[in-house]
């Protein structure tokens, strides 16, 4: 059928972006469960949850590749292609960091997290997980903004971005606290190294979420 | 030599086939944005397109058509009636065949360009290369480039205006309703103007340009204000309201596109048929022939049949594939395409509805209105547009040679 009109329309990358953000959200839940399981004494599900996160990360990778591979040269979008790809990269790195954190724990599952640090680890995890849930809201809001160009919608997305930024700040503080504590404890240096690296990896989840938020802010600029 | 009635029947058949093709192919372009934006259902689109193409063809379609479209080929070739008859046949048949081939192969060609190419082919066969008016041909070719650009500019501006004055406002719905008379009025203004300038009814009134503009402005203002009242009454007062306002207006603009399309495209099929008709009836033909109303109606019915039979499949594809077009965008596209086509046909330039619609989509895309538009399709369109004219010309030459043997 001869419809030149049709070939003008390319599948919207925002659909894929939203799908990717949903994967991040699913992953957040599994990540939180895994950490809680690891901290508690009788943990049997950790390995299962870690594999779940790996699987989700793999699916998200496929979505990412699909978005990148299906934007022909000369595609015009409400945002620049590079902004979109930068955003996607950050959102993807969020998942990578989640996966890395769980992998890092699995390399040395015994003796686990020192009891004195549990509180701070939970604080850090909470601060890192919350932005993951915000990301899908943010993408959905942005998608709707590019449809309606409504100022209200734009403000709503900007609010989500500043929320993500605040959470990143909280995560930073928790991360610093863990490091400060762990260096002043009388434990073996391997545990110190393991904890410091773990705190940094979990902290980077929030960092990448914040970067994604910043890229989103750039896309929203008028 | 075939008998007169045989020639005429054969002419009708080929003319019908060509207008059927126009309906089957071009309906997609006029109704695509409305169906894609879910302003109307597929069934409604077919109904509106069928009826209004027919009405547009019959009442706004050119009553006097240049025998050789737009004087690209010198009328010297028409001095021999026998040759002219064969020529008209070969042009019509070649254009129809080429469009059918393009349909089968999914090539984005234009019915308008096919008939122009076919006419050139016939001209070359009948009188050699000297009969081709290359300057005129250049002007026509230029209009093909200008029409999408013109449409692009209109839709770009229209969408920018909608974004700036309505969508970005805090109470978008109120602004949409407040400004709705302007959008409705503008559309009505262009329609009324083209009615006054182009239809026999308008010509018998013989109004001067300023008077016609004044009348169109008054009618536009009145209908605009009336439309606003109806919108205030029927549009839901919530978030979805803004798009809803444009959804309602878009029903109007898609009618406007169908009307413009019928008026513009019917000559592609009926022009050569009119030549055949006059050669058979009177034995001679001049530079211009009056086209009887029943021929225009015949062409309109042909287009409507094409829409009715092939339209469903086209619309179905469109409805499923174009999901990123909302009503505000659809309105901008429709308005730009129809205005371009009406202005071009007023200036006597054979432009393609397809290209006007494509230009309209690009304009909205450039105004950052669509989530993803592929601009590379432009190259493809330009390529096939360059190919269409020689291809149709060659087909026409071959058909001409064949017919010369039989007739």
Give the radius of gyration of chain B: 21 Å
User: Unreliable segments of chain B (pLDDT under 50, ≥5 consecutive)?
Assistant: none
Q: What is the CATH superfamily label of chain A?
A: Phosphate transport system protein phou homolog 2, domain 2
Radius of gyration of chain A: 20 Å
Describe the model.
- The complex is a heterodimer of chains A (222) and B (407).
- With 222 residues, chain A is an all-alpha fold.
- Chain A contains six helices and one strand.
- Chain A has one domain: Phosphate transport system protein phou homolog 2, domain 2 (Methane Monooxygenase Hydroxylase, Chain G, domain 1), CATH 1.20.58.220.
- The two termini of chain A are 39 Å apart.
- In chain A, 47% of the residues are buried.
- By secondary structure, chain B is mainly alpha-helical.
- Chain B has one domain (4-406).
- Chain B is built from 13 helices and three strands; from the N terminus they run ααβαααααααβαααβα.
- Chain B has a two-stranded antiparallel sheet.
- Chain B is globular.
- The termini of chain B are close together.
- The model of chain B has no long low-confidence stretch (mean pLDDT 82).
- At the A-B interface, strand 1 and helix 4 of A face helix 1, helix 3, helix 10, helix 12 and strand 3 of B.
